[in-house]
Structures are given as C-alpha cells and as structure tokens.
Amino acid sequence: MVKQRRIRSNSCCSAVAPLCCRRGPLKTLTKPAIFARETSCDCRAPHEKLTIAQARRGTPVDRPVRVYADGIFDLFHSGHARALMQAKNLFPNTYLIVGVCSDELTHKYKGFTVMTEIERYEALRHCRYVDEVLRDAPWTLTPEFLEKHKIDFVAHDDIPYSSAGSEDVYKHIKEAGMFVPTQRTEGISTSDLITRIVRDYDVYARRNLQRGYTAKELNVSYINEKKYRLQNQVDRMKEKVRTVEEKSKHFVYRVEEKSHDLIQKWEEKSREFIGNFLELFGPDGTWKQVFQERSGRMLSYALSPRESPCNSPPRELSPLRSPSPPSPPARWHNARPSPPTSPKGASASISSMSEGDEDEK
C-alpha cells in the first residue's frame, strides 16, 4: 500500500506512463506535497474526458484521475482534512490537487482570515492526502483553468455556495458532469472556532497577558489590561486557597484514619480486658473458686478447732479472778461423756451436766 501511494503521489501519471509524464524522484510520506507549477502535467498526450463511472472502474490505466478541491482552509482543522480524505478516496487511482485562494481574493469575497496565505499554503502541504498545492487559486473555475491543469473532477460539498454574484459558483461544474460531492463534518468549521474565541475573549486575553504578551499586541485598552491582570491575581489566590484546602483535607483524612485505627485498637484492648476480668470475677471465675475454697477451710476450722499442744505451759490465774470450783467427785471421772461432735451435741451435754448438778444438790 505504501508503494502504491509513493507511485501515485510523485508523478501526474502512473509508473507505466510515458517518460514525459514522470516528474523527478519518488516522494515519500515524510515529504510535504509539491507546489503546482505553471502547468501541473507535462504530458503532451491528449487529455480524454472521463465519466464518473469510468473513473470508479479504474480507467484509464495509463494515468491517475486528477481531482481538484479548492477552499480557504483558514485555521486548518479536522473538517478540512476529512473532506480532502474523501476527495482522495473517490476513485481507485486519484491524484489530488488542492487550490488555496490568496488573501486578496478571500478578503474581497469572504472576509478577513486568521492565518496568512503563506501559512495556509504550508498547512495544506503537510496534509497526508494532498499530492499538489495550487497557490493563488481562482475564486470561480473557468473551462480554461480546468483544461490548463487537466482536471477531471472537482470535489466539494454539495451545499450551494453563493459568492461573487452567483447563487452557486459550482453550478456550471455540476452541469458539465465534473462535480463529485463530499460530506461536511458537523460540529467543526473555521467559523465555529472563531466563534469560540470571540465568546471566550476575556479568557484568552488574560491567558496571553499572563504568558507575556503586551496589551498593545492584544489590542487591549489600559483599563481592560489592569482588569485582566487583577483577575489573574485573584485566580492565582483562588488556586492557592484550593491547594491549601486540598492539603488540609488530606491531613484531616490522615488524622481521621489514624484516630480510627487507635479507637479500633482501644476497643480491642478493652474487650480483651473485660474478658479477662470476667474470667477472674465472673460467676464462674477463678476468684469465686478461690473464695469458696478459703471460706470452706475457715468454716471447718471454726467448727472443729485443733487441740492445743500438750507441752504448752499452764495458764496462771489472775488474782482478780475467782478460783475455779472444786473438781467433781470421783464418780464423775469415771463417767466422762464423749466430746460433742456438733454444737447441738455440746449443748445437750451441757444441759445434762446441769441437771446432774441439780440432782446432786
């Protein structure tokens, strides 16, 4: 495919054309399109008239179909490129010539341009679909112009183009059967781009002042210049405030994240502490078991105290105390009651002893 492109774009005729139709070394895709000379085809062979049906079948085989597309191409954009792409792909073997009108004609019939004609010429040369650029193209196409440049067909959108006192400057081309329509790209045009700039004029003026352009270069009055510079300062302050807010939000987020982690760890520790506390002091905890064991030992000690050791020294009687009563008769020694095993038994033995004393008396 690349080889085919190189052959078509470097000569007005195909590789099998006569030597007089070949034009210098082959051009690669990295080189810009050539500028048209006085006549863009040096071949002296008769230029036969083609129909659209013949061109779409790939005839004639000895040369490409020469298609012409003209325009202003100010602020060259994707809509221009897509129109030229359609013109280039109209036929199997197409040589696309693009005519660009000069500043003089454009300012006369259409209006002021943003780009100069030199800039517009160079913009077209670097479009990949263009084979040849025709400078200072005529506003209206005459039969002499078409014959001079051996043009087979003219490509343009089908909307009637009223200009130079004519309702449609392509009317006679259409009547001659040499017009091939292309489709416009909606949403993009040079007028749309200029409308955007005019609509946002203050924004672009402030931006260029900030980038170093002077008020004189921008055709801005002294008061507007001061206003724009003040607005730029206010915007910078707002940007700083937004930056500080973003940083503060990030800091607060980090603090919240850390505090959340600390609270989560504290909750885990508190649950662990409560669990350990319940294990110790709960209804079935360790401390209850220890307390029950110690209480049982103390109660058993109170009910059955241990005997005092045999070698303990006798107690001396205090002089304030009365002497102990005389020991009972010998008969009581033989009938010593068994020691009580319980408080009830002890009280029963005491009561029996008291009854015995009464009998004795």
What's the gist of this structure?
By secondary structure, the chain is α/β, with parallel strands linked by helices.
Low-confidence stretches: 1-24, 330-335, 340-344, 354-361
Which bin fits the share of residues in helices? 40-55%
Largest sheet entry: 6 strands, parallel
Note the gap between the termini: 151 Å
**Order of strands in the sheet with most strands:** 1-4-3-2-5-6
Strand segment count? 6
Helix and strand element order: HEHEHEHHEHEHEHHHHHHH
- Helices, by number, come to 14
The fraction of residues assigned to DSSP E strands is: 5-15%
Radius of gyration: 59 Å
Mean pLDDT: 77
- Which structural class fits the helix and strand makeup? alpha/beta
Shape: elongated
What does this entry look like structurally?
With 361 residues, this protein is of the alpha/beta class. The chain is built from 14 helices and 6 strands. The chain has helices spanning 2-9, 52-56, 78-88, 103-109, 117-125, 143-148, 171-175, 190-199, 201-210, 215-218, 222-281, 286-303, 330-334, 343-360; strands at 34-35, 65-71, 94-100, 132-135, 153-157, 179-182. Strands 1-4-3-2-5-6 form a 6-stranded parallel β-sheet. Helix 3 (78-88) links the parallel strand 2 (65-71) and strand 3. Helix 9 (201-210) packs across helix 11. The protein is elongated and about 145 Å long. The chain starts with a helix and ends with a helix.
